[in-house]
Amino acid sequence: MKNKKKLLILESLAHIAGGQSVLLNILPYLKDDFLITVVIPSVGTFSQALIKMGINVKFVNPGNYSAGKKNLLDVLKYLLLFPINLVKSFWFIRKSDLVYVNSTRVLPNGILGGIIFRKPIIWHNHSLIGDGKTKAVLNFLTKLSSLKKVIAVSSAVAKQFFNLADKTEILYNGVDLNKFQPKKDKDDLKLKNIVVIGDLMPTKGQDFLIKALASLKDIDYKLKIIGSARVGMESYETELKDLIKTFALNDNIEFLGRRNDINVLLPEADLLILSATVPEACPMVVLEAMACGVPVIVSDLGGTKEIVKDDYVGYTFETSNEKDLADKISMFFNLNLEKISEMRKNCRTEAELKYNLENNASKIKQIINDVLK
Fold first, then answer.
1. Which pTM value belongs to this model?
2. How far is residue 266's CA from residue 274's CA, in Å, rounded to a whole number?
């Protein structure tokens, strides 16, 4: 036990979103080799999952902030809280052997603490950063010597910081192939089961998807919307439900809320749609769908388009183009069963070859050990 290195992981969200899901996936492969402490903002579903796993959890709250472009209030709140959070973070950083930053918002704490206490920093970058102010700060901080390695979850993520090319390794997220498996004996698509998974928020484009589906008059489909509104975005869920009423789609669309049984629900679907209106780095829902043998239709943005091969595991569509999305959905459901069966097999094969969680975690463990040498 005393020979284990102390690994400190910094996080900025209290609930489980994409990057947090990735962390929860890889921790079982790391916890036997390192003494791990995860610092998160507050108690919630994320802390519950970590504690259940036997991970030591501490709390430092960097404050709430706007998704995407940051406004003046975000900047002022961050500057006000930053010195306090920095001191709190330093308490944990000085006791660690390595700091693993899993969230961009707390990267300054990690890098500055690493400089002061001479601790190596690894940045697992899950973000495509659209805010100029944030990127300017990060371009300065990432030049500092404490940052030893960057794990970028797609080429799109890596290209944001070309000055870090010599420190960066592109490593797509991994999916648990035992947990996410195809359903045997799929039906013949008499009822088209579509699923969309993610927080209910404008950048996820659920409203855009509903509008596209409203134009499909000749397809008997059922859309299941999985996810709940982020804090402060509750009105968006109301907007979605009003939109459904406007288009008289109540019989076609069902809200399931936040679920913990995605691995059970996904294999039942015939198609997953990711209608995001902003680039996503390497969305887990797409990888999980593919592992379940479920074809995908996704926005042609960011790291997502690196994963989805057109006419092989699904289709990409022109972002924010309702007609193109509707056309791709119609195209998919008008394929013959042989072609759809081929796509399903391709999805699973891609997941096995490229996105195996065990391989992914093994590479991350090796990166940590190399930095610690």
1. 0.91
2. 13
Question: Once rounded to an integer, what is the mean pLDDT over residues 161-189?
Answer: 91
Say if residues 77 and 63 touch (Cβ distance below 8 Å): yes
Residue position matching structure tokens 């804090």 = 231
Residue 331, pLDDT score: 96
| Residue spans in the chain of domains classed CATH 3.40.50.2000 | 5-174+356-372, 192-354
Position of tokens 């004996």?
185
What confidence category does residue 284 fall into, taking pLDDT thresholds of 50, 70 and 90? very high
Query: What single string gives the DSSP state of each residue in 33-102?
Result: TEEEEEEESSSSHHHHHHHHTT-EEEE-------SSS--HHHHHHHHHHHHHHHHHHHHHHTT-SEEEE-
Instruction: Say what the pLDDT of residue 3 is.
Output: 84
Collapse the DSSP code of 297 into the 3-class scheme (helix H, G, I; strand E, B; otherwise coil) and give the result: strand
Classify domain 192-354 at the CATH topology level: Rossmann fold (3.40.50)
Confidence (pLDDT) at 117 = 96
How many angstroms separate the most distant Cα atoms in the chain?
66
Q: What is the strand order of the sheet 296-299 is part of?
A: 253-257, 221-226, 192-197, 271-274, 296-299, 314-317
For the chain, what is the mean pLDDT?
92
CA 225 – CA 185 distance, rounded (Å): 24
Alpha carbon separation from 127 to 59, 123, 134, 179, 357 (Å, rounded):
22, 11, 11, 25, 20
Which single residue is written with the structure tokens 């709140």?
77
Given CATH 1.10.1060.10, say whether it is the number of domain 5-174+356-372. Answer: no
